[in-house]
Amino acid sequence: MSTLPVAVAQLSAGVDPEENARLAVAAIADAAADGAKLVVLPEYTAGWAPRLSLDLAQPADGPFVRAVADAARAAGVHVVVGTIETGPVAGGPTAAPGRASNVAVAIGPDGRVLGRYVKVHLFDAFGTRESDVLAPGEPGPQNTLVLDVDGFQVGIATCYDLRFPETFRVLADAGVDALVVIAAWAAGDGKVAQLQTLARARALENTSYLLLASQSGPGRSGHSAVIDPLGVPVAEADAADTVTLRADLDSAVVSSVRDAVPSLRHRRYRVVPADVTEVDR
Questions:
Q1: Which of 3, 33, 129, 235 could link 226 by a cystine bridge, Cβ 3.0 to 4.6 Å?
Q2: Burial of residue 270 (number of CB atoms within 10 Å: 0-12, 13-18, 19+)
């Protein structure tokens, strides 16, 4: 049995890529100084605006990712962070002219990029259309990201994915102990309650920890959290602009909950990628 010290950074990104990189680097350094071995930063940390634009996108090896990779290496920690990337991405669409990808980038303590998850479910809801700017990732093994962080299996998802429980069942099938969700959850009536309910449900139904890194600031909901495998928050933020949550994940807690509630073993359905044309009908 083991523990994993983690940090979830809630911050407010903007359109200035250099300032966003500075915020990310500072959050990583501060979290590592406080003992974290895994640092999670929100979706769109590389760039956010009320109206999504290709102007926010950078190449996969652009200055933002390089700055975060350098910070991860200097601190000796794993980092998960949200970017918008131009060019082809493994797990992304085969052809997306004029569109970018919403990518969760996982970086190791040596500064090496360990993998990328391209957001599968684009937020075309509540009057927003991510698909005008972004191309969705492909569902399936080629776009399923699970990290081994000091013996903990950590699965990655992004924001609107929270409304699709099958995404998290796929990660559960991959053997995760903890789920990471990076988000820039839109503000609005009832949106915080929806975010909290969905995040707790995904932890509870998969008997896994869930780390939610959610952007704060105008137009965003904040309320980042670390949630235990019974769906109980062990650390939680409000809508404050900048805060870092610290927690220790305990593999013994995961084991004891799964022994008491073996719901993953009791399942009688499996998850397979949907035929998009069939779903659209």
A1: 235
A2: exposed
Q: Which of 43, 85, 138, 166 is catalytic?
A: 43
**Which tokens in the block code for residue 118?**
């391209």
**Active-site residue identified among 119, 130, 191, 205:** 119
Helix axes 63-75, 17-33, angle to 10 degrees: 10
Catalytic site includes residue 130: no
How many C-beta atoms lie closer than 10 Å to residue 87's C-beta? 14
- Which one is catalytic: 37, 85, 130, 159? 159
Mean pLDDT, all residues of the chain: 94
Nearest to 178 by CA among 164, 194, 199: 199
Place 273 in a pLDDT band, splitting at 50, 70 and 90: confident
CA-nearest of 142, 150, 225 to 180 is 225
pLDDT at res. 281: 42
Is 19 catalytic? The answer is: no
Predicted local confidence at residue 93, as pLDDT: 63
Q: Is the pTM of this model over 0.70?
A: yes
Strand order in the sheet with 152-158: 146-149, 152-158, 178-183, 209-214, 225-227, 233-236
Residue 81: what residue type? V
Taking a C-beta distance cutoff of 8 angstroms, is the pair 185, 221 a contact? yes
- Asked if 119 is an active-site residue, the reply is yes
